[in-house]
C-alpha cells in the first residue's frame, strides 16, 4: 500500500513538473501591428504565419490589423513588439523615440497625390490655390511636403485638408487632389470609372522608403534572439509571398479580408512588386545612405533639426557564425556530432523504408510538376507557331499595363497581319501556309526582347506588347520585323515566293488606357496600312 502511494505521488509530481515545463517552453506571444487593414501590403507576414516560418523559428506571432489613426512610433512600440511604418518615420527617431528599423520592405514609397484627369492638374505647381487632402492628424505628409517644396510651392499656397481615406471624394467637387497609395487607390478609381492623374514625389526627386519594419530598442536589448528570428522569418515570408502571389491572395481572401476581390488583390500584388523590386534588390535590404538622404530632405524642410543623429536607428544583424570563437565552434561540433550519432542509431531501422518512400514521393512530385508545366504550357501556347496565345496575351498584357501605370513608364502595342495570306493558301496549299506562319513567328521571336509579350492572336495575325517602349521605339521595331518578313524567301513545290506584312502601332496613354482600347487603336492603324497598299507600318 505504502509503495502504491509513493508511486502515485511520484507519478503525479513528475506529471506536474512536465506540464510546468511544457508551459514554460511555450513561446510567449509577440505582436506585430499592421499599419492598415488587411491587404497584400502585409503579404509576407501572412505567408510567414501560414507557412509555419514563425513557428519553425520558435515564435508565436499575432498580427493586429490597423486602420485610420494607426501610427507606428515609439509610443506604440512601448506596448507592441513590432510595427510597420513609412520611410518618414526617421523623423520620430531623430526626435528621440527609441525605435529601430529592422528591414526596408518597399524600396520606394507608394505615397502619391491623385487628381481628376478632367481638372488638368498634372504637376505640383498646378496645385497652387487648390484644395488638397494631405494632412494626417493635422501634419502634412512629409513626402508630399518635400515634393511641393522641391517645385517651389509653399504649403501656405495650398488649401490643406485632413485625409479622408475615401477616393469617392474625387467624384464630387469638394476637393482637387488627395493623398493615396499607388498600390490601392488607382485600382479603386478605375473600378469606379473615375479618370485620374498621379503626381508622384518620386518624379520630383523625393524617393523615401515605403513600408519598413520597426521594433523598439528595449525589445532588442532584452530579446535580441527573438527579434533576429522574427526579422529572418518575416523576410522568408516575404520571399515566399512574392514567389506565390496568387496563393497568398487566396489566403488573404480566405483568412483576413473576404470582402476584397481577387482582381483587386492581384493588382495590389503587382504594384507592391514594382515598389519592392525583389528581382533586383534583396528583400529587406537597408541602405544607410538612403536613410541619411531622407533625413537630409526632412532637415531641409525644417521638419527635423539639421544636426540630427541616426546612431542606433538601423538594426545590425548578429555576426555570422564563422566569426564566433573556435572553442564555441568545437563545442557546437561535439554536440551536433553526439546528437547525430544518437539520431542515426535510433533512425537506422526506419531509414531504408523512409528513403524508399522519399524517392517514390519525389518521383510522383516530379511527374505532377511535369504534368502541370505541360498543361500550363498548352493552356498559354499556340501549338502551330510556338508563340503565346490570346489568353496569354490578354492576361500578361493586363499586368504589363498595370505596371506601366503604377511606374509611369511607357508601353506600346504592335498588331501585325500577313498580306494576302489567303492567296498563299490558295496557291500553295494549307501546309505551306502553316509553314509561312511558323517562319514569321520565328522572325518575331528573334527580333523582340524576352520581356515583350507576344502571341498569335488569329489566323495570320500577331500581336506584341512592348513594355517601357514609346511609339517611336515600337514603330522602329515594327519596321525591323517588316523588313525581315519581306526579305524571307519561302519554298513551295512550285518554286520560291516572298510575302509581306502590314502593321498597326499604338502607345499606352490618353484614350489608350486599357488593353482593349490599345488593341482597337492598333486595329484602326492596321486597317489603314492595308488600305494604303499593305507592306507598311502605320501608327496612331
Ligand atoms: N494555313 C493556314 N491558314 C490559315 C490559318 N488560320 C487562318 N488561315 C487562313 O488565312 C486566310 C486569311 O485571309 P483573309 O482574312 O481574307 O486575309 P488576307 O488574304 O491575308 O488578306 P489581307 O489581310 O487583306 O491582306 C484565310 O484563308 C484563312 O483560312 C492557319 O492556321 N493556317
From TrEMBL:
Its cofactor is Mg(2+). Its EC number is 2.7.7.65. Gene3D superfamilies: 3.30.70.270, Periplasmic binding protein-like II. InterPro entries: Diguanylate_Cyclase (IPR050469), GGDEF_dom (IPR000160), Nucleotide_cyclase (IPR029787), Rev_trsase/Diguanyl_cyclase (IPR043128), SsuA/THI5 (IPR015168). The keyword Protein biosynthesis does not apply. It catalyses: 2 GTP = 3',3'-c-di-GMP + 2 diphosphate. Keywords: Membrane, Transmembrane, Transmembrane helix. It holds the Pfam family GGDEF. Residues 409-540 form the GGDEF domain. GO terms for molecular function: diguanylate cyclase activity. The chain crosses the membrane at residues 329-352. PANTHER family: DIGUANYLATE CYCLASE DGCM-RELATED (PTHR45138:SF9), REGULATORY COMPONENTS OF SENSORY TRANSDUCTION SYSTEM (PTHR45138). This is diguanylate cyclase. It comes from Leucothrix pacifica.
